[in-house]
Amino acid sequence: MASDNEELHGLIRESVRGIASDFDREYWREHVDEKQFPEEYWQALADDGWLGVAIPEEYGGEGMGMEEMTIIVEELSRGGGQGGIVFVLTPVFGGIGVTRHGTEEQKQHYLPKIASGDMRFCMGLTEAHAGTNTLNIETRAEKEGDEYVVSGQKMWISGVENADTMLLIARTSEFDRSNPTHGVSMFLVDDPAERDAISLSTVDVALPWFEKQYQVDIDGLRVHEEDILGEEDGGLYMLWDTLNTERIAGAASSLGGGLRAVDLAVDYACEREVFGKPIGAHQAIQHPLAESYAKLLASREILYKAARLWDDGEDCGMEANAAKLLTSEFGTEAADRAIQTHGGNGFTREYEVYDIWQNMRLTQVAPVTNQMAKNYIGEHHLGLPRSY
Amino acid sequence: MKILVTVKEVAEAEDDFEIDGLDIDERYLEYDLNEWDDYAVEEAVTIAEDGDDVEVVSVTIGPERAEETVRMALAKGVDRAIRVWDDDLESADMLDVGTKADILAAVVEEEDPDLVFSGVQANDDGFGATGVALAEVVDMEWGAVVNDLDLDAEGGVAHVHRELEGGVEELTDIELPAVLTIQTGINEPRYASLRGIRQAQRKPLDVQGLGDLGLDASVLESAVSRTAMFEPESESDVTVFEGGAEEEAGQLADLLRDKGVVEG
Lengths: 388, 264
Ligand SMILES: Cc1cc2nc3c(=O)[nH]c(=O)nc-3n(C[C@H](O)[C@H](O)[C@H](O)COP(=O)(O)OP(=O)(O)OC[C@H]3O[C@@H](n4cnc5c(N)ncnc54)[C@H](O)[C@@H]3O)c2cc1C
Known about the structure:
Order of helices and strands of chain B: EEEEEHEHEHHEHEEEEHEH
Largest sheet of chain A: 4 strands, mixed
Bound molecules: flavin-adenine dinucleotide
Oligomer: heterodimer
Strand content of chain B: 25-35%
Number of helices of chain A: 11
Distance between the termini of chain A: 45 Å
Radius of gyration of chain B: 22 Å
Order of helices and strands of chain A: HHHHHHEEEEEEEEHHHHH
C-alpha cells in the first residue's frame, strides 16, 4: 500500500503544482492591491476536486484525509500566491468542523457547496479583551424561543466580506470554574456581511494579503437554534477538536511559503553576479539557504506525521503543535535569508520575498501564537506545571 | 471507437551535466511525460468526452519508472494502459525508430484502434519519426504535425490541419484508421483532477513483454548504433552591437566586411 500511496501523492503534488503555476505573481499582486478574493483560482481548485479533498464522498467530496490536504496546501503555497492558507478557514474549519459535528441537514447544506467552491467561511472567535484567553470571551447569545439573540464584539476577523457563512463563537452559559470549557457555542451565521445586526469596520493591517480584517460589532443578531454547530455549550470542545487540523494546515502553508522563499533565493543567487561570479558561490549566501532548507525538510517530517496520526484517529497534539511552531519559525527565517540574498531587490515588490516574510511572520501569531504551541508541549507532553 | 495514444517518458538533463560513456550521467537526468504526448492525450480524452462509446488506451515502451507518467495519463482520462517492457528491452543499448514502430505495430494489431495518436517528436532523442514509421508498418493512413483536428467518426474521416514549414498549413482529409502525430498547441492540456487521480489507481495497467506481443529479441536488431556522445563546441561567438541605429549599422557593416561576407 505504501508504494501505491506514494504514487497517488506524487500525482497530487504534480497536478496541484500545475494549477498554482497558472496564477502568477501579477495575478496575486492585483488581488492584494485591490483586496479582491481570487475567484478564478478558487474555482479552478474546486473544479478539479481540491477543495473537497477531505469532504466525504456522499457529500460531493473526495473522502481523503489530512495527509492529502497537507500536500495540497504545501504545494499551493510553494507555488506562490496565497492560496494555501485560505484552506484553513473553509475546507478545514468549515469542512472538517461540519463533517465531524454537523447535523445531517447541515452536512447536506454546507459540504457539497464547500467542495464546489460555492461556500466560503470566516471565523469569528477572537475578541480584543479576551485575546488568547478564549474562555474570557464576552459575546453572549441569549435564548429567546427557538432563536438566540447574539451581541458582542469580535476583533481581527478576516475575510468577512467574502464569506457566505461566519463561524461565530459566543457564550451561551456563565463561566463555570469547575467546568471551564463548558458554556460556549458555535453558530453558523449565513451572509454575515449583509446582516443588519452586524456592522463591520476595517482594521488597518499592513500585510500583503487579499483579505481585510474587521472589527465586528454584533447587536441583537438573531440566529435560529438549528444553526448551532455541535452541542449547545459544547463549542469549545468542537473548537479544540478541529484545532489540530487547523495547526496542520497552517503549518503546511508555512512550510510551502518557506520553501518558496528558498526556491526564489536559490534562483536569484545563481543569476546575480557581483564580484565576477554568482553570489550563490559565496558560502555566506549559500550556507544560510542550505540550513533553512534542511530545517524546513526536517519540520516537514513531523508535519506529515501529525497528518497521518490524525487520519488514523490518533492523538496528534504534540506533532501538530511542533509542526506549527517549527514551520512558522523556519519559514520566517528562510524568508529573512531570502531577503538578504536579494540585497536591495529584496525590498521591492517585484521580487516577492519581503511579502513572503510578512505573511510568514504572521503565522507565528495567528491563528494561534507560538507561545501557546510551546505551552501545549510543555504542559501536555512534557508534564511541566501549567505556566499561566 | 478506439483511440490508441503512444506516450513516452523522456529524460531531461540539468543545465550542467556530465557525460558518462555513451549517455548523460543518470544523476543529471529527470524524467517526465513527453510534452507532445501530453497534447496527444488531451486530444484523445476530449474526443472521448464529447463522443459516445470512445475508448482511449495508452501504450508506452519503458521501464517500471515510466508508470508514474502512464498513471498521469490515466488520471487525465485515459481508460487503460499498456506498458511494454522485459529483460530483452532492458538490456538493449538503444531502441531505434524501426524497433519502436515494430513493437507499437504489434500493439496496434492486438488492439485494432480506429485512430492512433503519437506526439510529433520526443524532446529527448527527437527522432520525430516513430508515428509515421508506425503508420507505414501497419499500413494505415497518416498525417504528421497535426495542429487542428475535426473528427467525423461516423464518416470515418479526420479533417486535419498540418503544420508545414514557414507558417504554411495544409488542410487535408484523412481516412480512418489512421495515425496522427500531434503538435503542441492543438489544445490546452488539463491538469489531472483529484477524482481522476483516484480513479487512475484502479484503472488497468497491463505489462507486456515482447513474447506477449508475438515478437522476440530479433526486433531489437538495429542498423543504427550510438557511437559517441558529446556536447558540441560552440562554433561562433555572439557580437552585440551597441549604440544608435546609425552606429549599429556601421558596426554591422564592419563585421560583414571582416568576415568576408561583403567586399570593399
Ligand atoms: C492578520 C490577522 C488575521 C486574523 N484573523 C482572525 C480571524 O479570521 N478570526 C479570528 O477569530 N481571529 C483572527 N485573528 C486573531 C488572532 O488569532 C489573534 O491575534 C491571536 O490569537 C493572538 O491574540 P491577541 O492578538 O489578542 O494577542 P494576546 O492574547 O494579547 O497576546 C499577546 C502576546 O502575549 C502572549 N501571551 C498571552 N498569554 C500568554 C501565555 N499564557 N503564555 C505565554 N504567552 C502569552 C501571546 O502569545 C502574544 O505573543 C487574526 C489576527 C491577525 C493579525
